[in-house]
Amino acid sequence: MNKLDQNWVTGFVDAEGCFHISLAKNKNRKREWHVQACFKIGLHIKDEDLLLQIKLFFGGIGTISRNKNRTLVTYSVRRLDEIIKIIIPHFEKYPLITQKQSDFIIWKMIVELMNKGKHLNENGIIQIINLKASLNNGLPDRLKLIFPEFTKLDKPRVSIPNIINYNWIAGFFTGEGCFFINISKSKNRKLGYTILLQIIVGQHSRDKYLMNILINTLGCGVISRRSNQNLVVLRITKFEDLYKKIIPLLIQYKIRGIKFLDFQDFCKAAKLIHKGTHLTLEGLEEIRKIKLGMNRGRVHPIPIV
Q1: What pLDDT does 305 receive?
Q2: Is residue 130 domain-shared with residue 198, that is, in the same domain?
Q3: pLDDT tens string 44-65
């Protein structure tokens, strides 16, 4: 088990993490509202080992829980002192660089109010409601009905570096990246088929600028936008870029968790193509077999640490 890099963890949280604030009516009559801050990461159950690594990275704080169907697993940190002493200092030193950074800043402001006890009085609750209105997806309808005069604040501006840390990229690709092998019919090929390897990373359209910085850092890739969705997609398809730039980078800085298995198979196919083996019937069938066992085709995968 290799120790996780700090920037790798931030990159993975940029992909999969959430900074959440909940408000619920308090059964205790001494105060009307119960306010809870939570940092969490939710994954498929097959990546439980990866969440254990992240829990250990943060010094063992927080809890790991499974849903009733045992299909999802969540790492959560809820204790205010642990959030203040461990979680917040990490993301101050190793900042998020997606638009999630603005959510973290708002979340931190609410945590600071809670630490001062402001959540225990009416004026403090109003302050928290106004901040929560700009956090993540905003206020749920039930809170809008209770606080109809809430004021939604402008989100803080996100600071994005000109060059992105490679460990951050590996963490982000572990969360958001997809490794694909496409095999399609082609009249121009001797065997009647062409093979295309590609890495795809999708992100909300508000992070388009970040995706362009990512392309500049990697020195390859193109961005497209899906017109019917608020989504921008980074695609890397040029074989020379994949084989000489991206694969060596992700080997050095590490794809982790269950996605490592897909990356490992992706690398196997790339080696076969590099050798020209894909131009033979045997090589084509070998790559086809690799493809069938990747992603959703993988049967009972073993979690990789």
Answers
A1: 42
A2: no
A3: 999 999 999 999 999 999 999 9
Instruction: Find the CATH number of the domain harbouring 265.
Output: 3.10.28.10
280 vs 191: CA distance, rounded Å: 8
Tell me: pLDDT of 267 over 70.
yes
Together in a domain, 182 and 279: yes
Say what the pTM is. 0.92
CA distance 243 to 261: 17
pLDDT of residue 25: 84
| 207-241 tens-digit pLDDT | 999 999 999 999 999 999 876 678 999 999 999 99
In 3D, which of 63, 74, 71, 12 has the Cα closest to residue 45? 71
pLDDT for 295 beyond 90: no
Based on the fold, state whether residues 25 and 141 are members of the same structural domain. yes
Give the position of tokens 């890739």: 221
CA distance readout (Å), 214 to 113, 131, 154, 197, 259: 35, 30, 26, 19, 20
Q: Per the structure, how many domains does the chain have?
A: 2
Asked which of 146, 174, 198 is the last residue of a domain, the reply is 146
User: In what order do the strands lie in the sheet containing 222-226?
Assistant: 177-185, 193-204, 231-236, 222-226
> Residue 206 carries which side chain, given as an amino acid letter?
R
For the chain, percent helix, then strand, then coil, each to nearest 5? 50, 20, 30
50: Cβ–Cβ under 8 A, 6 or more apart, which residues? 43, 256, 257, 258, 303, 305
Domain that holds residue 73: 6-146
Q: Is residue 160 one of the residues assigned to a domain?
A: no
